[in-house]
């Protein structure tokens, strides 16, 4: 799943190529991807892409009227949430043929902008279709954005501490709950907790002052490193570059690069997380959740 560093890199990549370009055509192969109908997706045609950025893990494409329609909506946003298996591909050789709705192609949405052939595809692999897109006049119209917590990198240390003190539950869940803090997903929460030497099952509001300090610094260190490694990379290479920087996530059974202990996994119905017992849980092995119990 693309998280804050990947969405930042995708936004920067597309902004560097699409900002200032007119949208010539929008093709939708999967109508279920669009969660709004007013304005229609055809309203984006002949508008200018002003900028591409992010809010949390959402890709924000801001458009303004083109010279042919100066009285159109002053701002329209195309907002994309890539979810678990979504991605964006920039191309300079897009086919002029319309997408076929309901086909087997992973392409859900195509935006032609700039010269013929230029533009990008929004794709989704797999059978679980969670990719989502909105076209709105104001970002607050999207409930999932309106209810986002503050961007995790925008928080001061004291603001972060206050959030943890008021949060209930395990620190893993708090970090990945976008209503509490925005931007952290499953993979990077594993990396952050490993760097902070904290158990995923530690209770957020009972962390000591030193643990809060360490966790706050770990968030910034992990994300700064990831953003730095992804900066300037082609979108097609971001997934592989992300994997090269992971120390515990998706590395079950491999040695921890810090201490050499075996990385373990806890699995749930549709996801899993990884951790190092020696670094994070005092050597205790947390039971796989499929066993419905915790070894103590």
Main traits of this protein?
27% helix, 8 helices, zinc, elongated, single chain, Helicase, Ruva Protein, domain 3, hydrolase, 4-stranded antiparallel beta sheet, 296 residues, N-terminal domain of MutM-like DNA repair proteins, Znf_DNA_glyclase/AP_lyase, DNA_glyclase_Znf_dom_DNA_BS
Describe what is shown at a glance.
The protein has 296 residues and is an alpha+beta fold. The protein is 27% helix and 20% strand. The chain has helices at 4-18, 143-146, 157-166, 171-176, 186-196, 209-230, 238-244, 277-280, and strands spanning 23-28, 48-55, 58-64, 76-81, 86-91, 107-113, 119-124, 132-136, 264-267, 272-275.
Protein model, in words:
The chain is of the alpha+beta class and 296 residues long. It has two domains: 143 residues, N-terminal domain of MutM-like DNA repair proteins; 140 residues, Helicase, Ruva Protein, domain 3 (Orthogonal Bundle), CATH 1.10.8. It contains eight helices and ten strands. A hairpin with a 5-residue loop joins strand 6 and strand 7. The longest helix has 22 residues. The two termini are 31 Å apart. The C terminus is likely disordered.
What structural category arises from helix and sheet content?
A: alpha+beta
Name given to the CATH architecture of the largest domain: Alpha-Beta Barrel
Give, in order, the helices and strands.
Answer: HEEEEEEEEHHHHHHEEH
What is the CATH class name of the largest domain? Alpha Beta
Q: Predict the CATH topology of the largest domain.
A: N-terminal domain of MutM-like DNA repair proteins
Q: Can you give the mean pLDDT?
A: 93
Q: What share of residues are in beta strands? A: 15-25%
Helix content: 25-40%
E-strand count: 10
C-alpha-based Rg, rounded: 21 Å
| Distance, first to last CA | 31 Å
Order of strands in the sheet with the most strands?
Answer: 1-6-7-5
| Number of domains as seen in the coordinates | 2
Cofactor: Zn(2+)
Domain Formamidopyrimidine-DNA glycosylase catalytic: 2-103
Family: Belongs to the FPG family.
GO molecular function: 8-oxo-7,8-dihydroguanine DNA N-glycosylase activity; class I DNA-(apurinic or apyrimidinic site) endonuclease activity; damaged DNA binding; zinc ion binding
């Amino acid at each position: 799943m693309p998280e804050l560093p990947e969405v930042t890199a995708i936004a920067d990549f597309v902004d560097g190529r699409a900002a200032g370009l007119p949208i010539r055509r929008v093709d939708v192969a999967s109508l279920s991807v669009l969660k709004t109908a007013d304005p229609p997706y055809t309203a984006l045609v002949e508008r200018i892409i002003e900028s591409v950025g992010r809010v949390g893990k959402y890709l924000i494409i801001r458009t303004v009227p083109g010279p042919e329609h100066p009285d159109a909506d002053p701002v329209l946003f195309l907002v994309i949430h890539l979810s678990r298996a979504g991605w964006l591909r920039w191309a300079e050789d897009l086919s002029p043929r319309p997408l076929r709705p309901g086909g087997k192609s992973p392409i859900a949405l195509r935006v032609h902008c700039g010269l013929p052939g230029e533009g990008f595809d929004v794709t989704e692999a797999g059978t679980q279709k969670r990719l989502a897109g909105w076209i709105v006049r104001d970002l607050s119209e999207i409930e999932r954005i309106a209810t986002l917590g503050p961007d995790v990198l925008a928080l001061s240390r004291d603001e972060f501490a206050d959030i943890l003190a008021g949060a209930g539950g395990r620190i893993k869940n708090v970090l990945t709950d976008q209503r509490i803090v925005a931007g952290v997903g499953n993979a990077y929460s594993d990396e952050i907790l490993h760097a902070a030497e904290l158990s995923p099952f530690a209770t957020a509001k009972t962390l000591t002052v030193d643990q809060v300090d360490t966790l706050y610094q770990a968030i910034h260190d992990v994300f700064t490193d990831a953003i730095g490694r992804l900066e300037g990379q082609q979108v097609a290479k971001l997934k592989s570059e992300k994997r090269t920087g992971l120390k515990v996530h998706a590395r079950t059974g491999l040695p921890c690069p810090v201490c050499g202990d075996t990385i373990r996994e806890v699995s749930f119905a549709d996801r899993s997380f990884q951790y190092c017992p020696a670094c994070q849980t005092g050597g205790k092995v947390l039971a796989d959740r499929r066993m419905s119990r915790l070894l103590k």
